[in-house]
Amino acid sequence: VFIAQSRASGSHRDVEDEELTRIFVMIPKSYSEEDLREKFKMYGDIEYCSIIKNKTTGESKGLGYVRYLKPSQAARAIEECDRSYRAILAEPKNKSSESFEHDYYSNNPRQEPRGSMLPFCGQPEFCSFEKNESRIQESVSKRLSVLSRLPFIQEQLFALFDLVPGLEYCDVQRDPLTNSGYAVIQYSTAASAIYAKYKLHGFEYPPGNRLTVIFLEDGNDSSE
């Protein structure tokens, strides 16, 4: 298994340096670089830590970078660190930090979870899923519809959605006129379907082809 690089990228080493070993995190403003290193050193060998500061006052903005020696270490940190850090892979340095910070705040607003946490027992990532207002208004079910500009291959799509526990069936259909992809996915629980939609709606598969994942009525009471 390896990570594919875009055609516009330089050598693999350049991509590894710029895109796969540096993570961007949200931290308390009281953190020093040593505090940041202490919190993240358990995931791998750290090359450096840095905290983004206000250029005028020198005060921390509550954001920082952690650079690991290996992509696998950065990936582990993103997966295993506390969700409050909202860790993501950092943009390459050639993108201005101001625009990246803006995008990050837009996509990761710091706010208290609204509604209740869904009871995904035994799955730490499930437990962090927040039922916000827009998701509550959707008609939730155990069945999903998947749309694509490109036709699906049954085995590949099954393998993709089988990453979420509880997949019952994957039925790939094809429109001979448009050659677009359409499939119906069903899980054993609505919780699994919610998580699959949350993770895979907008996912590019194959790269450049964005999936559209929506709920389908399955005859059950969605209020549950």
UniProtKB/TrEMBL annotation:
SMART domains tied to this protein: RRM
Keywords per UniProt: RNA-binding
Gene Ontology molecular function, alphabetical: RNA binding
Domain RRM: 21-95
Cross-referenced PROSITE patterns: RRM (PS50102)
SUPFAM superfamilies registered for this protein in UniProt: RNA-binding domain, RBD (SSF54928)
CDD domains for the chain: RRM2_RBM45, RRM3_RBM45
InterPro entries noted in UniProt: Nucleotide-bd_a/b_plait_sf, RBD_domain_sf, RBM45_RRM2, RBM45_RRM3, RRM_dom, SLIRP/GR-RBP-like
Name of this chain's protein: RBM45 protein
Organism this protein belongs to: Syrrhaptes paradoxus
Record lineage: Eukaryota, Metazoa, Chordata, Craniata, Vertebrata
